[in-house]
Amino acid sequence: MTRSLVLTADDAGTHPDADREIAALLAGSPLTAVGVITAHVDGEQNPGALRAVELVARAAPDVAPGVHVVLPEPAPDGGFDDVVDRVTDQIDALARATAVVGSPAPDRLDSHQGTLYGLSGRSYLAEAISVCARRGLAFRLPRGLELYGDGDPLLTTPAVRERHASAVAAADAAGVRLPRVIATHRGGDAEARDYVSLRDHYLRLLDRLPEGTSEIFLHPAPDTARLRELSAGWWRKRTWELRLLGDPVLVREIDRQGIDLVGRW
């Protein structure tokens, strides 16, 4: 079995400068996928989603975007009883945007800041899997937690492991496609330290990818005053991730390891 990788840029639709960079990366870098935000954290529709989809369609017309689900913060006591409607509305919004520009319809669902997983609140894994099954979408729920959970004691607890195993079994029973593992850099600027350290982190992740189809997701963005404001404590890392996707060292390492770049798992 081969090792395949979906290399994804998340948070498209949040800023025009970042959207332009993501579209350019899809046309001329190892990047193969994109997650688009169609709702703001206050629950209102994000008008930047159509802009992002238009840019992606022009640069990479065969790329089907993912639905990067956002739930309002803070969640009410007890969580969202209408989460299925909220998720479905965001899927429909992105489907309408892709229909307008004639690009492929959304093909997967993922979770902004892990809100669907229940790592810091109520879990919506059952609801997300049900929606994915009905809509024929894949879901960013890893079969294995070994890379995403590096150094996170929460993901080693029996309760989380049991919840994860049950969700994987439910997805399999419903025919929902899952990646083998997912990985990223989960810290901010302070944890990333500098560009070389961050690049070394992602190169080590490549070396550890198991057989099957996995995903590495990043949040590339240019250095602008607005993005510094929106991503305080994170903006340097985002600019470094943008730089990484154009770094020939990354390309050479993917080739050296014989990793196949693909657009879906």
TrEMBL record:
Flavoprotein recorded as keyword: no
Chain coiled-coil ranges: none
SUPFAM superfamilies recorded: Glycoside hydrolase/deacetylase (SSF88713)
Position of the signal peptide: none
UniProt entry keywords in alphabetical sequence: Carbohydrate metabolism, Hydrolase, Magnesium, Metal-binding
Cofactor(s) required for function per UniProt: Mg(2+)
Pfam families listed in its UniProt record: YdjC (PF04794)
Top-level taxon of origin: Bacteria
Gene3D superfamilies registered for this protein in UniProt: Glycoside hydrolase/deacetylase
Protein name as annotated: Glycoside hydrolase/deacetylase ChbG (UPF0249 family)
